[in-house]
Amino acid sequence: MNQSSFAPGRIELLGHSGNFDQNLVLSAAINLGVKACGCARPDERIILSSSGHHDATYFGEPMFLEPKHNWADYPFGVAKVLALSGYRIHGFDFHYESTLPSGLGLCSSSAFEVATIILLSKIFDLDIPPAEIARICRIAEREFISINSRMHDHAASIFGKHDYLMLVDDRRESVVHMPAGADLAILILSVKGTSLRHTGSFQSTSHSDDDVLAGMGFLRQGDIESFGRLMTNSCREPSGSQELDTLRSLATATKGIYGARLTNGAAGGAVIALADVRQSKDASKHILSKYASLTSQKAVSHHCMISSGAVSGAVPAKAARSNPREACLALS
Q: Is 7 helix (H, G, I), strand (E, B) or coil?
């Protein structure tokens, strides 16, 4: 029988944005993410499929997996580290569907990994503590994919809580939840084809850990307006992308937007705007319209909510009789 899992992407409201010298990040899970559906196989064959990607297969013990240098390395890496950590798994057939726009700094790779390990724990009846899930995903990225991964990369996808922000301390490897309220929305603004000149100028300053702590203070006081201003001021310099700088300026000047900052990503990144949910849709339309009139270019907005971390469950009966690809699409 096919099972399913879902792992959300994440946003960073304060801290990080490419600055690995700091320890604190204030982030949140969002309701966009990666769905995985699949089942165990009776043999040692691993079959992976995903819309928009070529299928990937492997036959043999998972501990002997080697990188293929494509999208499948994320689930393959998790499977290998899981096996090397002493968890007993064998062949499986998984299909993935993602609602996360790639390359915008929303941690789609982490969502792939977390969705994989949650689904593996389900079909092989593995008891894996959340902190162990984070550790396995970090090792997979560092040793299998050669990415400098830290606690915050997977924390929101695993530990996210509905309507809560998360203070992640990379040095102590700890997570603290802070209520954000149900009246907030997230706008992810981007321009297709945007190219950031990665000079590092858009990163948070060396005092960004202090910014994160100050932001926590505003949250405790319920002062979302001061929090939004701090969020905007945490990225004080031009990004190197005229498109994103324009979007950020438009967002911060728009009614209903508390604050906006840049996020780093492989496709150039995006602008993350914190909005009043009652005004967020009108704010999004205004920003896109204003940007088009100023630049004759089309910007894109994704409307998100602060969401819960990874979940798993059985596929509905009709989908459970299908193959993993059809089962995953049935959940859309």
A: strand
Element holding 143 (H helix, E strand): none
Bridge partners, 7 (sequence order): 34
Q: In the chain, where are the structural domains located?
A: 3-169+310-330, 181-304
Q: Report how far apart, in Å, the C-alpha atoms of 281 and of each of 198, 246, 251 are.
A: 31, 19, 12
The CA radius of gyration of the chain, in Å to the nearest whole number, is: 20
CATH C-level class of 181-304: alpha beta
Of 70, 32, 64, nearest to 48 by C-alpha is 70
Distance CA 130, CA 116 (A): 14
Cα–Cα distance, 77 to 71 (Å, whole number): 11
- 151 — pLDDT class (breaks 50, 70, 90): confident
Summarize pLDDT for 203-236 with one digit per residue, the tens.
Answer: 444 447 888 999 999 999 999 999 999 999 987 6
Q: What residues contact 147, with CB distance under 8 A and at least 6 apart?
A: 109, 141
Task: Return the closest-CA partner of residue 287 out of 320, 324, 323, 246.
Answer: 246
- Fold of the 3-169+310-330 domain: Ribosomal Protein S5; domain 2 (3.30.230)
Residues in CB range of 222: below 8 A, 6 or more apart: 181
Reference 77, options 30, 125, 116, 32; nearest CA is 116
Q: Bridge partners of 211?
A: none
Of all helices (H) and strands (E), which one includes residue 241? none
Mean pLDDT of the residues in the chain: 86
